[in-house]
Specification:
By secondary structure, the chain is of the alpha/beta class. The chain has two domains: 165 residues, Aspartate Aminotransferase, domain 1; 266 residues, 3-Layer(aba) Sandwich (Aspartate Aminotransferase, domain 2), CATH 3.40.640. The chain contains 14 helices and 18 strands. The strands form four sheets. It has a seven-stranded mixed sheet, with helices on both faces. Strands 13, 14, 15, 17 and 18 form a five-stranded antiparallel sheet that branches. Helix 4 runs parallel beside helix 11 and helix 7 packs parallel to helix 8. The longest helix has 22 residues. The chain starts with 16 loop residues before the first helix and ends with a helix.
Length: 450
């Protein structure tokens, strides 16, 4: 079975002949702005494995950029979606009530680690929509116009979320952007000011946040501060817990809501169902949680969760949409939650992350181009630099590694402010043998490319 197979390239080169023909057709009909650096045309996927149209097998460390925590083609999810499809495909929440929407809202309200005794949840279609909706309800509840986001942040490609996103290569020529979005420096501890002891860094980054209040928008006009518990596109940088606790305190002092953007880091990726459970264990909680990606194993779905008083502040008609909470996606989402709990995938994420971190740290001693290794659970980043002393980013090497690993049956993806990080987002159902095969391919690629 593909689910248990190992990577294997059977064609003399990549892409193979069938894939090359389809990729040529893609070039003629699909905009080149939708970039794809991989020579892979998928025929089928199972677990953590992809087989292309020529019979080449790849172990996937990208997982649809965090969508496939339960893996490709999970049989129980396929069955749940088929069963729902036999009844009806669509039921808009403004027109009819379908039980799956209600059941998934109940379940997420129970599980999400947000502040409040009674919580409510509703659905959108994408991570960007979830983030934008979280901002909407924060503005409705506070009556304030502005939000605060961070360097390195990625929140989406709608007009508002392009403004919220730090890396403006995702928004070339798209301005003017909405007003009222202000940015502070995220605690990227590896790149803290030169010579600064780590113990002083948290105070430094909190001062940078305070400067936004002083120079951009007074705190009384900020509706929400939006934080990724682990920055995704920014380079897989966990938000330090001491900093999160201080941000929560600032929010409480000024009546600001704290939004956790768990679009990429949710659904057991970090060793908890939601990464903000680590916040909760440290005594703080977000007010609103926005999540998507692995929520429905690949079907378009996202969710926003908050306490009742926040949710009920939103005027009728301001939130919702035609496909939001689609019955097929909700059926998948309910089954995903069942599988995550039953199969102990949070614990599996911790075990996978331990293996990957240990191996990466061994490489860090061996290869001077590895500057930093960091992450939470099975969400791990490895940062490449030209020089450890200067920490000069090495995106050219990362581009070579992405191409080289693919040629040998491993799919990896870059990330980071400078494009010099490779992210680990393999499905949590990856076997130990597949993980080891991927690690071997990756190290061989580093040795070949430096």
């Amino acid at each position: 079975m593909l689910r248990d197979a190992l990577p294997k390239i059977v064609t003399p080169s990549l892409p193979g002949p069938k894939a090359a023909e389809i990729l040529e057709r893609r070039k003629k009909t699909v905009p080149s702005a939708i970039r794809c650096p991989y020579p892979v045309v998928i025929q089928r996927g199972e677990g953590a494995m992809v087989e292309d149209v020529d019979g080449n097998r790849f172990v996937d460390w990208i997982g649809g950029v965090g969508v496939l925590n339960v893996g490709y083609s999970q049989p129980e999810i396929v069955a749940a979606v088929k069963e729902q499809a036999d009844r009806y495909f669509h039921g808009m929440a403004n027109v009819v009530t379908h039980p799956g929407y209600v059941a998934l809202s109940e379940k997420l309200s129970e599980l999400a680690p947000v502040k409040g005794a009674h919580k409510k949840a509703y659905f959108a279609n994408s991570g960007a929509e979830a983030d934008e909706n979280a901002v909407k309800i924060a503005k409705a509840f506070t009556g304030r116009p502005n939000i605060l986001v961070f360097s390195g942040a990625f929140h989406g490609r709608t007009l508002l979320t392009m403004a919220m996103t730090s890396k403006k290569s995702y928004a070339v020529g798209m301005g003017p952007f909405p007003d009222g979005v202000y940015r502070a420096e995220f605690p990227y501890l590896y790149r803290r000011p030169e010579g600064m002891p780590e113990e002083k860094a948290i105070a430094y980054y909190l001062q940078k946040l305070q400067e936004v209040f002083d120079q951009c928008s007074p705190a009384q006009y900020i509706a929400a501060i939006v934080v990724e518990p682990v920055q995704g596109e920014g380079g897989f940088i966990p938000a330090p817990l001491e900093w999160v606790k201080a941000v929560r305190k600032l929010c409480d002092q000024h009546g600001i809501l704290l939004i956790a953007d768990e679009v990429q880091c949710g659904f057991c990726r970090t060793g908890r169902l939601f990464a903000s459970e680590y916040w909760q264990e440290s005594g703080v909680q977000p007010d609103i949680l926005a999540t998507a990606k692995s929520i429905a194993a690949g079907l378009p779905l996202s969710a926003i969760v908050a306490r009742e008083e926040i949710m009920e502040s939103v005027p009728a008609g301001v939130i919702g949409g035609t496909y939001c909470g689609n019955p097929l996606a909700c059926a998948a989402g309910l089954k995903v939650l069942e599988i995550l709990e039953r199969d102990h995938l949070a614990e599996r994420a911790l075990a996978i992350g331990k293996t990957v971190m240990e191996r990466y740290r061994t490489w860090q001693q061996k290869y001077p181009v590895i500057g930093d290794v960091r992450g939470l659970g099975a969400m791990v980043g490895i940062e490449f630099v030209k020089n450890r002393e200067s920490k000069e980013p090495y995106p050219e090497l990362v581009s070579k590694l992405v191409a080289e690993t693919a040629q040998h049956g491993l799919m990896v993806e870059s990330a980071g402010v400078y494009g010099n990080v490779i992210r680990f987002l393999a499905p949590l159902v990856i076997t130990d043998a597949q993980l080891e095969a991927g690690l071997q391919i990756f190290e061989q690629a580093i040795a070949a490319c430096i």
